[in-house]
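Honest question from a wet-lab person: if I give you the sequences of every part of a complex, can you actually get the arrangement of the whole thing, not just the pieces? Trying it with mine:
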Amino acid sequence: MKLINPLASVKFFFVLSALMLAAFLLGGVIPQGQSPEAYQEMFGRLGGAWVLNLRFDNVFSSYWFLALMAGGFLNMLACTVKQWKVLRLRPGVFLSHLGVMLMYVGGGVHGVFAEKGVLALETGQVKAEYSRYDGESAAMPFEVMLKNFQVHYWDQEKHIVHALKKCDEPGHEGEDLLESVEVTPGQEAHFSSAASDLTVLKFYPNFSIGNAGPMTIDESRQNPALSVKVAGAKSAKPSYLFANHPDFHGAQNADGIRYVYEYSPGRIKQFESRIAFLEGGVEKFEKLINVNSPASYKGYRLYQSGYDPKNPNYSSIQISKDPSVLFIYAGFAVLMIGLTMAFWKEMK
Amino acid sequence: MEISLKASFVFYGAALAATLLGFLFNKDWKFKYSVLALFAAWLTSTYHIGARWYLAGRAPLSNQYESVIFLVWAFVGVYLLFKHFSGRELEWLAPWTGLVAVLSMGGASFLPSEISPLVPALQSNWLFIHVSTVMTGYGALLLSFLGAAVFSFMGKAGHKEHKDHKDHHKEHKDHKADHKEHKAGHEERAKSLESLVYRSCLVGFWLLTLGIITGAVWANSAWGSYWSWDPKETWSLITWLYYAVAIHLRRTKGWRDKKFAGLMLWGFVLVMFTYFGVNYLMSGLHSYGG
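Yes, you can. This is the full assembly:
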């Protein structure tokens, strides 16, 4: 009982709250999870060393922050026990405190039992292990196979060719834009201005020069280029237009009109993976997952988290097994009921 | 659609102008017409939000521009609700509400307003539930801030006015009754305002709690993690804890009137930083909302 009084005191609550606010501010202001070199650059050699020693680089998993959280839980528990007779008459306040306590418990359960990591899969690949965030591998009681991966777009990518002409007026430098035309690889593009028509021969998503000449390294749009043939050009060889290098190798017609290529990527609508869950090589069921629509199996939840623009067959899937969700959600519900009851009385 | 937004801007301005004209010509109707203009502005804003929702095919809450328009709508809506349930007590706050709305909408006009398709993470019904709850909470806390600012100003102005009145009545002792009446009116107004500051804080805190919870549930269904200590989450928690402490200070330590008003003034600075500051100064999971 001697210990319960200071633990349950309002003063202790205010002190803890001030410390928690300070901790949140530290974590909210100092960038978290950076390299030691980054902190040295930000705060100097000595300041950077202090940031690391005091764990300000990972405030929310530091020993002192966890101690603060434990203090918060004990304060609420002691307050509830000590003030039970009063709180019984004020169920709203009691439930609000109980809700927060359940969240503290949830936080503890999360720290001890939660498992989380990434499952990196390519189409057709089967895996029974995922990579945890600490770099270790963890086994799953089943296998996951990526059957298919697709990226959907709001609008498709666009290839636009701008025709530019050097400014003739004396005293004016630079180029005038004559016309911009959206082109399609394999088709002829018509210009209604003085610019000559051109035929777009081929699209290279990631242009490079190989042993056999121009080629694309992969399907990623890192160095988009077009090979074109300008109508009326003397040379029979195609010209190359590069989106990333508009001034390099620009095709020109006989009148000195230059062509510049602009690549406009499509806006991503959704990316989704069709995955199958297997046990001993036997498929149990399959599901299409996308962002906001995960799959669950044997306590594990699988979330679509990313893709690789360089590799259209690759899908990054986040995997999580977190028994704390039950406590946290119960805490949410109880807190809201408690606050509603407590405030409703005061609003009247 | 844009005409409805312009109309609401004009009506918010009219709420302010009605009071100014009323004061200028010493008319009793000044606050009544201010409230009417506010209601008209709120209706046109409702139409604007509805039309944008229809055109976009989703709730208009996906960027800073859309959220500011919604925040102003929620703020005025919360004020009108409080006014409705308080009778004529809070009528005189209408021009101040109009002023805040005009300034906020003026600020929103500098933000990009085009309707753009949603990124995959935002394609969820939780977008409406989470953002509308948080924004309505911010609207209630803005009302609490406005009430606190007026309360603090009234305290100072009232004190000066009271002193002038006292000096005046020292010379005319037969006006004692008038002085008492004036003082009682001032106190009554301060009392209703103080009550508004506290009650709107409670509404705002309740909605902020629900907003954080719905955000956590959404995050868990989208990413498998209900809390990631992303800057927006951390600053929301700072704001939440601050208001929780403010409510406890009032209930357990009796911090009322000026002290509580002071807490609400500083609290809204946190709200503003969480809402705007984090979007512009820090990157994180909420960056697409900036």
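Two things worth pointing out. Chain B touches chain A at residues 117, 119-121, 123-124, 126, 198-199, 202-203, 205-206, 209-210, 213, 216-217, 220-226, 229, 231, 234-235, 237-238, 241-242, 244-245, 248-249, 252-253 (CB under 8 Å). The mean pLDDT of chain B is 87.
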